[in-house]
């Protein structure tokens, strides 16, 4: 038994010693497995500590690796046909409907070591488009108040830091945390239950969107560097 454990330990040691960093490959292509993040604020949404969402398998990542720097492109799309939030105050309104959120980002990340386990940091610039179509109801009586058609389009800056592990030459697992600084143009259309428009509001605003897990991804590396 001791002999088997010794052999296995040596094999894992050799594997780790021979593991290469992601920067040894020219390109990486990956899939977004999971994120834990806030979503952009709609109307006068009341935020709380429980306002985190967990989008899964909804994005792609492409990287061009140049030594310790990787230039990266990301796209993700989140849809929720039963999205709801509290509006105005904690006892005022519940708004429920269909929500879509498109993210497109371009930026870079820099690894801090050449080893198989690499801490990294970087920044992305991007575009974010969010739409919501739903209905507001009184939180106490559930009586319909108005229909809401909301659009949000904006530019963002996303600084981040993370950790990635390349156990095999062709596979890297990466996790990062960050913060979206979003400057958006918002359009809010409210109509009554007969779909007669009651108000149209257009405005701009800054938002800060927390991402404790901005991206957990599985990446495949190819091309000799």
UniProtKB/TrEMBL annotation:
Residues 1-19 form the signal peptide. Keywords: Signal. This is Outer membrane protein beta-barrel domain-containing protein.
